[in-house]
## 1
Amino acid sequence: MTRAKKTWPALVALVALVLAACGGNGATETPETPETQAPETTAEPFVFGMILVGPQDDRGWSQAHFEGGKYVEEKMGAQMIVIDKVNPADRPDTSVEQVVDQMVEQGAQLIFATSDDMKDGILAAAKAHPDVPMIWSSGDSAWDIGKAYAGLPNLGNIMGQMEYGKMMAGCAAALKTETGSIGYLGPLINDETRRLTNSAYLGARYCYENYRGLNPDDLTFSVNWIGFWFNIPGVTLDPTQVTNDFFDGGADVVISGIDTTEALVRAGQRSAAGEKVWAVPYDYEGACAEAPEVCLGVPYFNWGPSYLEVARSVADGTFEATFQWVGPDWSDINNPDTSAIGFEFGEGLGDARADLEDFIAGLASGEIDLWVGPLNYQDGTPFLAAGEKATDLQIWYMPQLLEGMIGASSAE
């Protein structure tokens, strides 16, 4: 995708002509440069829709997308239409297709559907509105080497390579655990959640062995799935109770894979009662604020730059429905304007931060590559032979957890 280019010399010439036509006396204001230019504005602001699966202030997945939309508003002078809590529990009578219809009626020129759970709805909506560009975040409908879908030239995909962030989360947990036991609070079970959970496990094993000097086979890594991306009373397991179960069972670090911050909040409460426990939240840069003293850090998504690029392409007529699996900016993973994946170091990490920074540097240089065999699936069948590197397809469509992990690989 190409970004719109600004012709500054032409702009300067135009300003001079206008001043001359108005009888200017030769005194002119210095025109703005690209560095000082105000946000892009038009007579009619660019309008886009943002469909969130959870609350826009959940301190997790949905808030990260919401903040990405605010970034687009700021940079383009655009207008965002937001509908949050679009899920069967909060809005049982509202479908994604209905929300898209409403947003298009309100003038939306671009739609972001921000959950794997919205798959059927956004596919139907894209077919119903073929002239409206849409993005199904975390999906793979535009991946020409992925699973086959009906041709939808107006539906693209964006997903951050959170596999790296989860490796960092697993490493942080392994650097800090004193019991040698880590819990992973999982949402529902699918290809995405399996590959992210596996990434955390690989990061934990690597750092337990290479920085702690301990046998990675002695590390306990247990996974429990609540059944959805966040708590739905009466439908999912209670994430607070699952977190308690991990701690009561001997884990002293819980890594969260759900959209909200229950694991961190509970760790903070138990720490205040005198226990030595920690947690790693997920998704949102500011999540550690819920309990900073026990937070080891948070791997987070930064949707703003990618969303801005898409919005600009729609505005200038160059939009193409592509699959984008966007990685960190390894020169500065926390750069808000360039990096899709970041890691905010937590107060609870303490002196272990130096080792985690070294691990991240190894990922950045390619010196550390954890998707290399020998690796087996949980049932013992081969995943990667010795020295074999995983392909993108093998990572994206992860059918099982890995050997050595405790927990279910499927919901069946």
Note: The longest strand covers residues 155-160.
## 2
Amino acid sequence: MKLTQKNTLKGFTLVELLVVIAIIAALAAMATPVILKQKKKADMTEAVNNAKQIFYLMIEFDGDFGEFPSDASAADIDTTGTGVTLGTSTSNDYFKQFIAGGYTKSEEIFYAKSTITKKPDNVLKGDALEAGECGFAYVANQSTSVNSGRPLVMAPMEESGEFFNPDPYDNKAVVLRIDGSVKQLRVNQAKKAVLTGADTLFDTGEDTVWGSDGYESGNLKKALPK
């Protein structure tokens, strides 16, 4: 008599598949906050590194013009053949002075992740640093002769006032100071960058980084949003 072997293999039941899917979904839900936090940290690290690169340009520019990019230097730079139009309204305008003056051939160092930015295309003729390609705000018309703790370049700032967007860098602000140091400051619930205690970055008065000269809000130039 010939024996036959029956196929005893069987697949997952519907209930078993649902259990596996539920486990995978639960693991994904637990991992997502960690992944997002690490992504924000990486974005902040990129902003810190780019701020440092901008400072090197600032120092070289200051050596040539005796000041950082300003209203006056915008009129002194020869833009012939560059197709770059300079202005004095946004941080994009002031940072274009680096491009028009031949200090850099890359837009990427002006990028800082925020809700108003997009990745630069490195097109330097005419459309240099167009809307969204710069993520840093800039406090214009300063020099190395003022308080070294003053902010020079910052991210990620909102489009109005001295307020920071707390989301891109997990409640942190990246601030390049005139002394070349880059600080990662906590952003409080009022969207202000905190220095120490209750003191914030744009507080004014004799005992602040702005000193007796005060702070002129008109010098704060925001990035042009996309």
Note: The helical segments are 14-65, 71-76, 91-100.
## 3
Amino acid sequence: MPELPEVETVVRSIAPLVGRRIASAEFRCLRILRGGNPDAMAARLQGRKIAGVKRYGKFIVISLTGGGYLVVHLGMTGKLLLGGEAGKHTHAILTLDRGVLLYDDSRQFGSIEFSEEFPKRVARLGPEPLEVSFDDFAAALKRRKTRIKSLLLNQTFVRGVGNIYADEALFRAGIHPQAMASRIRADRARRLYDGIAAVLTEAIAAGGSSISDYVDAEGRKGFFQISHRVYQRAGEPCLTCKTPIRRVIVTQRSSHFCPKCQKR
């Protein structure tokens, strides 16, 4: 699933759409729509201009002039693409006064929603990991009696971190994915806070991680996957100590870590 760096990269690649007018909209798949019928949603979008494009966690929020928000979640395989021809996996088409924006999704786990008010499910998300203060982050850790890997995946704790970047940040902090969040000392909490910021910033600069079919709106792949230190490297030597990377299941998700470098 695209995580914060991938979604941020997509948002930046569609930023030039600000100011464009939606001439027409077509929705071809009911499964990806939330709370609306395709014809009604198309009618509400027609004629509106795009006022802004922002990322909130893993959500893409397109604000429209006169009020209203078009919210996109890419799910597992969703893509927003500028230009090109619609294909068999194209489930939404926004024809603009100049150009077209397509939504492709082969597995149909993503979603598109329109609402006049800012969506509650987005508003309920936790703080932005690149903006939250260390004091607030550390205090929130102390309140949570759960495994740290599970907590990092909880979007009400911080928004946008997923499996890839949780594993990578925990490695940089030297923290085992099964460590209890409430027991992490202040110095280790600081390393984790810094590790999250560093890995997300570096991944954004690299255009994200193209593990499977992720691309930005121009069809370009990211290349941060070549910098992964533990994610999907089970059995390979740790880049720091040469100990084989291990894989465990935490909250039904694979977690990759170095048993020597990362302590509980």
Note: The chain is about 25% helix and 20% strand.
## 4
Amino acid sequence: MPSLRIATYNVHRCRGIDNRERPGRIVEVLREIDADVIALQEVLSIGEKTREKDQARFIAEELGVNHVAGETRQLNGGSYGNVVLSRFPLRLVRNHDISVRARERRGCLHTDVDVAGAETLHVFNVHLGTAFLERRHQGRRLVEEEILTSRDLKGTRIMLGDFNEWTRGLTTRLLRAHLKSVDVRSYLQRARTFPGILPILHLDHIYFEDRLDLKALAVHRSRKALVASDHLPLVADFALPTATPALLNP
């Protein structure tokens, strides 16, 4: 079965705990991780300035990978939101608005990854709100037919990102009705990912179909990662289902 390393990482606009905005540090952390598919949250891309100001493009170019972006709102004259990076081709980009009125705008970026020899991987990159009732609404939106349970999805689904949920709330229960959850306590002595320098909360999660075989899980805690953002990356290694001839030649 093909293998794949997948990571989720809230990069906090590439602003580290030293309050310095340095996309180059994020690139170094991602090189340490060496993942095939990466879901980033809180990416700020401002064009027509220095190259590093367009964070999505800068990070993708430095790593030499493909990328797609899902804007949730405009910030400081740029596009702010979620980004998916991939060594494999990306297609069918859909950016779902899951915002709640009077709260900060939030999104779910859906893109399909064409992994050679494997079924199409449907990646949903999520950043949920910080309020309890807000997340309850967003959890219901995620499992609607428009997003996670669409009949058009032919392949394997994975949903990951910053869920801002440190207890087993409604979002967790709803997603577990459709996908498996990475039980970090079964793999890690330290499961917390936020804040990075002294993590006390587990906000970053990975949900996946049971056809995926989880082989390993890690919170990346290098010296660079401890200062590059206020989150730590969550990294998972999977074995993927092999594609049938019908899926390889639709």
Note: The mean pLDDT is 89.
